[in-house]
Amino acid sequence: MADARILVVYYSRTGTTRKVAKSLAAALHCDSEEVVETSSRSGMFGYLRSVIDARRQVPSRIAAGASDPSLYDLIVIGTPVWAWSLSSPVRAYLLANKPRLPAVAFFCTLGGAGSDQAFGQMQEVVGKRPVGCLSITARDVASEKYAPQLVTFVETLQRTLAEDRSTATSVA
Ligand SMILES: Cc1cc2nc3c(=O)[nH]c(=O)nc-3n(C[C@H](O)[C@H](O)[C@H](O)COP(=O)(O)O)c2cc1C
């Protein structure tokens, strides 16, 4: 596990997904990178535009990321749920980096409904099954009640990486 290269990539409009992403990166002892849009989504207009973009499954314009995902063993990708969907900035990241993605895991934050749909869309875009999925409500993030879920998710990722490495070693 100590040698596994993991990157947490996330988008966050209002800070909730960022908080979970930072906790995950700390627990996994790995780098994190925020997906940054080239235009603002603040305010009521930004909210409405987000709903429309998500429902139409439109990728947004994002700045080029600093990290090359192909240099990692696992990319852990986080999104807020928008209109029962994947957020447009994360859709754009997945589309832009699809050929360079190694194994993937997904996480999302949400008000309460739509995580399965969002994860299904993420899997459809990248064309591969995630090694794990984690959804956490914004309420649990605000009240700092997400540690048990986070620990279970991290253990799943660590176990999967360890199994993959032992399979690779026995084949070699
Ligand atoms: C445009 C928009 C649409 C949303 N749609 C949903 C939804 O369909 N289901 C849900 O449970 N929460 C929904 N939410 C709530 C967010 O998923 C939730 O607040 C999330 O934690 C925000 O993450 P962030 O602070 O990282 O941007 C929506 C929020 C926004 C801004």
Outline:
With 172 residues, the chain is of the alpha/beta class. It contains six helices and six strands, in the order E-H-E-H-E-E-H-E-H-E-H-H. Helices cover 46% and strands 19% of the residues.
Could you tell me the strand content as a percent range? 15-25%
CATH homologous superfamily (4th level) name? Flavodoxin domain
Quaternary class: single chain
CATH class: Alpha Beta
Number of domains: 1
**Mean pLDDT over the residues:** 95
List SSEs in N-to-C order. Answer: EHEHEEHEHEHH
How many helices does DSSP assign?
6
Question: Which term fits the overall shape?
Answer: globular
Question: Structural class of the secondary structure composition?
Answer: alpha/beta
First-last Cα distance: 18 Å
CATH architecture annotation: 3-Layer(aba) Sandwich
CATH topology: Rossmann fold
Spans with pLDDT under 50 lasting ≥5 residues?
none
Cofactor: FMN
Protein name: Flavodoxin-like domain-containing protein
Keywords: Flavoprotein, FMN
Domain Flavodoxin-like: 6-172
